[in-house]
Amino acid sequence: MTGYKRVLLKLSGEVFGGGQVGLDLDVINAIAAEIAEVARCGIQVAIVVGGGNFFRGAELQQRGMERARADYMGMLGTVMNCLALQDLIEKHGVETRVQTAITMGQVAEPYIPRRAIRHLEKGRVVIFGAGAGMPFFSTDTVSAQRALEARCEVMLMGKQGVDGVYDSDPKTNPNAVMYDTLTYDEFLSRDLRVADASAISMARDNNLEIVFFNLSTPGNIARAVRGEKIGTTVSR
Ligand code: UDP
Question: Counting atoms of ligand 1 from 1, which one is nearest the CA of 56?
Fold first, then answer.
């Protein structure tokens, strides 16, 4: 078993809300404890946080809002998740820094890639918020970009209550089958919806390995970081 030294962990907003709108602090605290434990073992952890538990631009657009403005609301939602996660990780005794792609000096550092890498080298968990700072993007795509720029070895996609990538939605189809491994091209050609196609194609173009795994299973973050076979691996 190899194990990684620097990882990018993507936490979707769904996780933060425990499936609801807003924050489920018990759920976040359990994840924060696992992240702190991994960081204490010397693994460098960068995190991209989603915001679907507050707002998704596409949904607000369907309800009549202008898309770009709705997307900015979505990005601001991710920052609230970042601050909650920061608070709880630090309560477990590990230093963190939040960096946002939309500048808001009172609450977070701006996104400065070289500084983020320096924080990681010092053992601080770096939490990236506000997506790319640009409408029409998703936090999945940002995860691939941050993983590449911060030179992470793998992108770990933590999902709420789902073990990996399935051939159809396991929440509605009891016969859905989970894939152990997929190539980037298989993922894209099968039109699997668990991550954005743009994130997968960016990973493919730069040969960044992706692991989809279930965050709801205790200990899974450590397992994923150790390189144990869990969930679905997407690679070349
Ligand atoms: N968003 C955006 N640009 C980005 C990242 C996010 O406009 O670079 C907006 C978009 O409206 C999205 C929302 O923020 O719906 C929340 O992000 P996302 O849906 O990726 O969160 P998740 O699904 O992971 O909870």
Answer: 15
pLDDT at residue 1 above 60? no
Q: Which residue, 96, 43, 117, 104, is CA-closest to 78?
A: 104
**Which pTM value belongs to this model?**
0.96
Any atom of ligand 1 within 6 Å of the Cβ of 164: no
**Per-residue model confidence (pLDDT) at position 193:** 84
Using a CB cutoff of 8 Å and minimum separation of 24, what contacts does 217-220 make? 217/163, 218/30, 218/34, 219/34, 220/34, 220/158
The annotation status of 166 as a binding-site residue, yes or no, is yes
Q: How far is the CA of 170 from the centre of ligand 1 (A)?
A: 23
Residue 117 parent element (H or E): helix 113-121
**Which residue segments constitute the domains of the chain, with CATH numbers given?**
6-235 (3.40.1160.10)
